[in-house]
C-alpha cells in the first residue's frame, strides 16, 4: 500500500509539472494548447542526446535539455500561439494539434521511431523499516513540492507574478495601467513549456521513451487542468496529486484502467461543471 | 489636448457612435452626459484604445492615436477608469498601486504618497485585499491608481454611480482638487456633480453629440440637461 | 453562346446531385482501383456525419471515431455471435451507434467549444479502452476478430463489387438524406443554433432536444460508416476507435470546407488521397499534413469547396455584369 502511495505521489508530481504550464496558458491566453506536451517530448530526447554527449551524466544533461526546450517554445509562441489570441477554440485546437503533428514527425525524423531505454539515474534505494523505496521517485516528489512553493512565492511576491494574477482576473484593467500584458503572457507560456520539459526529463528514466509519449500524457494533462480549474495553479497542484493517486490506486486493482479512470473523473467533472469558453 | 473628429464606432453590425466630434482643451474638465445606451462608455473605451473605431480620428497632444493600444497610451499620460469599478480583488491595495508604479517606473513610495494624498484613509487600508473594500473606497482607489505616474488626461466612467451621498461628496472633492492640474473627460449622470465641476458639457444621445454647453451659467442651470437623461 | 448550351444545362439541372456524385466516384475507379474507392466512400460517409455536427451545428468533437468504432463492433459482434446475415449486421451496427448517441447525447450536448471536444475525446478514449481490455473476452482485445458474413441473394460481402455497390448506395442515400435534412426547417434550426443559440431558445425552441437529435444522427451515420468498414475488411480491431484517427476526419472536413456537404465529400476524398498516396512520395507526410492544417487555419478557412463556391460566385457575377439586358442573344 505504501508503494501505491509513493507511486501516486511521483505520478502526481509529473502530472503537476506538465499541467501547471497548460493551466497558465489557458488562463492567460485562453488558448487550448494541444501542443503543450511537445516540449515534454523534446525535453526527453534532448536529455538523451546530451547524456550521450556527456557520457551519461544525468544532472547536467537534464539542465541542458530543459534549457534547450526554451527556444523551441519561444518559436511556437511567437509564430503560432500569438496568432491564436481571441481565436475560436476550434481553430486553436486544430492549429496546435498541427504543431504536434509536425513536432512528432520531426522527432521521428531526427531520432527515429524506436523507443530508447533509460534507467533510473540514481539506482539507489532508501530503506525504511521493511520498505525499499527508489530514492529517485522521492526526489521527483520533493522537486514538485519545491516548484509549488516557488510558484506560490512567485505569484505572491514578485511584481511579474502579481501582474499575472491581476491580468488573469482583469486583463484590460492591467493594460490600462500601462503594462504590456501580452509580453508577460508570452513569458508564462515559455515558463510553462519549460516546466513540461522538466516533467519529461524527470519522468523519462522511469517510463517508456518514444515519439508519441507526449500525446499519451497530453490527455492526462488536460484532465488535470479541467479538474483543477483552468488558470488556477493551486487547483492544478491539488488535482495533479489527486489524479496521480487515482491512477496509482486504480493501477493496483485493475492494472490497465488507470488512465481511463482519470478520464472518467474528467468527464464527470465536465458534466457538472462545464468550463466556460 | 484631445481632438476627436467624425468618430464612428460599431459593435459587430450595430453602430454605436455616429460622427462624434469635439475638442478638449488642456486643463479642462469636460463631462459627457446622456441616457443609458447612448454610447458614453463606448466613447471612452474607444479613446483609451480598448475599441477600434470604424471611421474617424482621435488626436491626442497633436498625434493620431486611433488604434494605439491602451498600454502605450498610458505611457503618454492617458488614464482610464472604467464603469465596473473593478479593482484587482485578489491583490492588496498596496499591490494594486504597485502595478501602475512599476509600469510608469515611479518609486512605490511616491506612488503611494500620491494616492494617500487624495484620501488619507487609504493609507490605513494598504494591506487589505482590494476585494474587501467598499464601493466608495474602491472608486477612490481606482482614481488614485490612475494618478500614479504623472497623468495628463483622465477618462473616467461614472465615478459616482452607486455610491452613497457622503461618498459622492468625497469623490467630487477629489475631482475638484484635480481641476486645472490634469485634463479630464468624465461620464456622469449625477447633474449636481456636473454642475459644480464642468468646464464644458457634451450631451450624447443615441450615438451623436446633440448639444455642447460651454456657457458657465447654462451649466449651472441644469434644467437644460435634465431632459436628456 | 447560350443557344447551344441551353438544353444541356437544362438536362443536367434536372438530374439530382446524387447522380453526379455517383458518376464521379465511378470515374475514380480506373484511377485508383475499386477497393480503394470503396475505402474512400466509407470515409466520406464518416466525414459527412462529422460535418453535420461540426460544420452545421458548430460543435467540434475530438472523439467522433467512437461512433465509427461502435458501429463496427456492434455489427461485427452481431454477425459473429448472433447471425451472419449482413443486412441485419448493418442494422445492428447502426442501432448500436445510435443507442450510444442517445445515451451520451444529453450530457455531451450541454457542453460547447473545447469542453465538448474534450468530453468526446474522453468518451472516445474510454470506449477504446473498453474494447481493448475489460471486454476482451468478447472483442478479443488488441487482436480484434474476423467477420464472416454470409452472402445474401446477389450480395456477397466478400466480393469487392458487391461491397462497392453497397457502399456507393449507402453514400448516395446518406447524402440525399442529409441534403434534405439540412435544407429543411430542422437544418435551418441547427445552423441557427450554431450562429446564436440563445436567440433560438428565446424563440421558444428546445435547443437541447435538437442538439441531442443532431448528435444522435451524426453518431448513427458514423456508425453506418463503421459498419460498412467492418464488412469491407471482414475484420474489426480497436484501431477503428483509436483517438488519434480523429485528426483525419477533422482535417478532411476543414480542407473540404466545413458546413457544406459537397465540401465534406471533397475533403474526404482529398484526405484519403493524401494519406494513401502522399506517404509514397513524401516520406515525412505528417509534417506536410501539419503544415497544411496550419495553412488552412490561418489562410484558407473556406476549404476546397468554399473556394470553388467563391469562384463560381465571382464568375456568375462577372457574367451578370457583362451580359446586357435580358432579351439579347437569349
Structure description:
The complex is a heterotrimer of chains A (277), B (229) and C (330). With 277 residues, chain A is mostly helical. In chain A, 73% of the residues lie in helices and 3% in strands. Chain A has a single domain (2-272), classed as ABC transporter involved in vitamin B12 uptake, BtuC, CATH 1.10.3470. Chain A contains 11 helices and 2 strands; from the N terminus they run ααααββααααααα. In chain A, a hairpin with a 2-residue loop joins strand 1 (125-128) and strand 2 (131-134). In chain A, helix 2 packs parallel to helix 4, helix 9 crosses helix 10 (233-253) and helix 9 runs parallel beside helix 11 (258-272). Chain A is globular. The N and C termini of chain A lie far apart (40 Å). Chain B has 229 residues and is α/β, with parallel strands linked by helices. Chain B has helices at 40-47, 70-75, 93-103, 108-118, 135-146, 165-178, 191-197, 216-220, 223-226; strands at 2-11, 14-24, 29-33, 55-60, 63-64, 78-81, 153-157, 183-187, 200-205, 208-213. In chain B, strands 6-7-8-3-9-10 form a 6-stranded mixed beta sheet, sandwiched between helices. In chain B, strands 2-1-4-5 form a 4-stranded antiparallel beta sheet, with helices on one face. Chain B is globular, with a radius of gyration of 17 Å. In chain B, 44% of the residues are buried. Chain C has one domain (2-322). Chain C contains 14 helices and 2 strands, in the order αααααααβαααβαααα. The radius of gyration of chain C is 21 Å and the shape is globular. The A-C interface holds A 32, 80, 83, 88-91, 93-95, 97-102, 104-106, 109, 215, 219, 222-223, 226, 256-257, 259-260, 263-264, 266-267, 270-271, 274-275, 277 and C 54, 60, 62, 107, 110-115, 117-119, 121-123, 125-126, 129-130, 132-134, 243-244, 247, 250, 254, 284, 286-287, 289-294, 296-298.
Gist?
The complex is a heterotrimer of chains A (about 280), B (about 230) and C (about 325). With about 280 residues, chain A is mostly helical. Chain A has helices at about 1-30, 40-55, 60-80, 90-110, 135-155, 160-170, 170-175, 180-205, 215-230, 235-255, 260-270; strands at about 125-130, 130-135.
